[in-house]
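Changelog-adjacent note: as of this version, every example in the card shows the full chain rather than a window. The one below runs 275 residues end to end.
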Amino acid sequence: MVVLIQSKDRIGLVADISRIMAAARLNIVSLREHVDKVENRFYIRIETENEADPSALEQEIRKVLPADALIAINPRPEKKIVVMVTKEYHCLADILVRHQFKTLGATVQCVIGNYPVLQNICERFGVPFHLVNHEGIEKETFEENILQHIDACQPDYIVLAKFMRILSPAFVARYPMRIINIHHSFLPAFAGAHPYRQAFERGVKLIGATSHFVTNELDEGPIIAQQVIPVNHSYSAGDMMKAGQEIETSVLAKALRLVLTDRVFMYRNKTVVFE
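Full-length structure tokens:
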């Protein structure tokens, strides 16, 4: 079983929770906990090697927790995701390969693209591809057309695998903290278009990528994973782009692994990540 708890902190919480697990004859094989002293916030993730009745266990745990506690027991072990893309293939290709060989931790319900460029690779992997053109129509209509496909799949998460369109607040509000993005910078840096050209012109010595949850504040959502690599004067803008795409693929894969295995807790605009 997997037990996830977030609540206000107090002395003795770990001991009380552990006693309840022992009384239920649950052997704990992994326990990670953290206290945010500034927010007085307690987080814990527990894995057990055997099982008990989830409803009964939750009732017992709630007896020793503050009233506002958030508890999740046995979240769906394999999640469902919808992937949204534009033209760049590198992140999508990695997701499709992991999906094919069942190492993703989720099933890809469909891929939605606003250009037909990536339809062929989806067909090769047997994953449905839906073309939703954004040209010549209002943004609201464009998003409504996307939502028809998403709602038909009922995904746990939506993954923006280099989807290069800004989503409206109304769209984001439908899936709070369920939209995962990969950004082409170690945020915050080089906002706007042509980030690698900007990096090249500035002569940077590090480039990176950031995966985060999408909020109404552009590229300001809670950060899940980040990574940087060194570069030097010998790198052209094209070299930086290739290196950056490799980092983007790696960081998005890591973020998905963390989220899909229920290792990411959110509070306000921050995350607690048990890697």
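Structural remarks: The first strand starts at residue 2 and ends at 8.
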